[in-house]
Specification:
Two copies of one chain form a homodimer.
Chain A (H helix, E strand, L loop, with lengths): L2 E3 L15 E6 L3 H13 L3 E7 L10 E2 L2 H7 L5 E4 L3 H13 L3 E4 L7 H14 L3 E3 L9 H8 L4 E9 L2 H4 L15 H14 L5 E10 L7 E7 L5 E7 L7 E8 L2 E6 L4 E4 L2 E2 L7 H15 L1 E3 L3 H12 L1 E5 L5
Parallel strand pairs in A: 2-3, 2-5, 3-4, 5-6, 6-7, 8-11, 9-17
Antiparallel strand pairs in A: 1-16, 8-12, 9-10, 10-11, 12-13, 13-14, 14-15
């Protein structure tokens, strides 16, 4: 159970009112421009009222250099969404929570598990909503996959998350720096789906991580997990994939096969395509953030990041050829 | 808070009865022979009734080849203590808990954090005691250090854990294998003291891990943590220490300096030696295990292992010269 109550439901709700809640977006990089800004623009619950960026904000939107400037200038803004990489994000998240703001965190929610637990404690103490998002959980096939597996006897799960890093993460230096997760930056999306759809927790039993000799984070990883009654999960993350790209999860159960493709957006059960549902990934996240604020709840599930930390802890390191961007 | 109630206090207690509770010891290696067997021999609460070992048991004590043999032959034994390395320990711990045994785990409590959380869930479901031990927390200066720091304003903590791996871990191949933790095997003792004596949680902000080019685990590590109000912790773990060996923690506070040496066994405050207290490390652990069983409680604190996982996750990897045992 990752949802916790922070106060009486209904107080200060924003989800169902006619006026949109002003929200500030902090960290205006690729993910903010590609996903957050369009999702907020399409949202009935939120209106983009300010940004914090040192490298340029958004046309027509008030911009501040740092969180301190935002907090001073706009006490009326009660909700903030943090899109910068995890390493610089922690201090900003602490400052926002300390100022009594509702906070939404891009994935991964922290550079370490311990710091996410600190944010959770502070949010609880301040009585505000903390939402550690996992956007892939809102992909169009995930909720139905979870429902299908709820009572299934699962035999084996195969996760293949294979993409070309040059195509999907051009110039994102931070992903190669210590704490930037490397191939686990996309791979954690697969783990966030895995932990959402499997009815019982699994634990890592082995891992191999391939580090380019000139980089601090892995370019590929093989993981093995074990669950109840002999259930096994095998996961392959690879950033060296040329040609067809793939983000697929196949679950074999005693009653049939479930297959999530396109990062969770497409669901087949025994080869039959299922209807898509939900609002889509980032619109789904903002809808959920509004719901959590409305209900006086937080939603912080560290399990995907915990599995990544466990993989670094338990995994064997292989050094592979240098990677040049 | 790491202590949780598993059932009504007093049921099935062993701590204060006249007869000793039979206990089985599983994994008869160096730590079992050096510490566990003498501590059980000196304990009023427990009597060593059986062992599980494939490499030779203890003279005069019934030995079984595996946990299944023990469980079948000795249903009367309600408490087991697991001393094997973390990687092979999980399945054995699950089997013992599933059979309704009270379980005590050597440190670290698992090869991953997620598996410890699984053990905790199973212990709760079965209504038995799970005790994830941290022996250094029972060193003679730790309880007083915790009391001194409870209301202190801490400025800086310096941890130096420097020992010669050849002297202290001869032939322990598993510590060099993935999941064996390397220098974090002793270093986690320092982190277990740190998390015990500091009144507020800290989180890792940076780490450098030195991996010998022929090994899967680090031989040295530098860690930096941050706490409230600008408090900082610097930790240096090094297995390459020749000459004087040292396991020291120095805490500078606004009212004075606290210094734990000898792995926590000796405490100085402002240069004044303090009286030692407690039963000693392993006698203290068995006393506590009996208390937990008596009270119907579990004690599982993963925070030291969480910090190690965070260090592997966030840390920069340096490759250093090969290490030959």
């Amino acid at each position: 159970m990752t949802v916790t109550n922070i106060r009486g439901a209904g107080a200060g709700g924003v989800g169902r009112q006619l006026m949109s809640e002003p929200i500030a977006l902090l960290g205006i990089g690729k993910i903010a421009r590609d996903q957050h800004i369009p999702a907020i623009a399409a949202s009935n619950a939120f209106a983009l009222a300010a940004t914090v960026s040192r490298s340029g904000g958004v046309d027509g939107v008030e911009n501040h250099d740092d969180i301190a400037g935002l907090l001073t200038a706009r006490p009326d803004i009660r909700a903030v969404s943090l899109c910068m990489p995890p390493v610089p994000r922690f201090d900003i998240a602490m400052a926002a929570l300390a100022a009594g703001k509702h906070v939404m965190l891009e994935k991964p929610p922290g550079a370490t598990v311990s710091e996410v637990l600190k944010l959770e404690r502070l949010a609880r103490a301040k009585g505000v909503t903390l939402f550690a998002t996992w956007h892939s959980r809102h992909a169009a096939g995930v909720a139905q996959a979870r429902a299908y597996l709820r009572d299934a006897q699962i035999k084996h799960v195969q996760i293949d998350w294979k993409e070309d890093v040059r195509r999907w993460h051009p110039g994102q230096d931070w992903i190669w720096q210590a704490g930037g997760l490397g191939v686990f930056d996309p791979g954690i999306n697969a783990l966030s789906i895995m932990t959402e759809i499997l009815p019982n927790p699994v634990h890592l039993t082995g891992a191999t991580l391939a580090f380019p000799e000139n980089r601090d984070t892995p370019i590929a990883a093989d993981l093995a997990f074990a669950g109840p009654a002999g259930m096994r999960v095998a996961a392959v993350f690879d950033w060296r994939q040329e040609g067809p790209q793939g983000w697929n999860i196949t679950v074999d159960t005693t009653q049939g096969q479930l297959r999530l493709t396109d990062g969770g957006a497409t669901l087949h059960i025994d080869g039959m395509a299922q209807k898509k549902d939900g609002l889509g990934e980032y619109p789904g996240l903002y809808h959920r953030f509004a719901e959590l604020i409305e209900a006086g709840q937080s939603d912080v599930d560290v399990s995907p990041l915990q599995h990544v930390a466990d993989a670094f802890l338990l995994g064997r390191r292989d050094v592979v050829e240098a990677f040049e961007d």
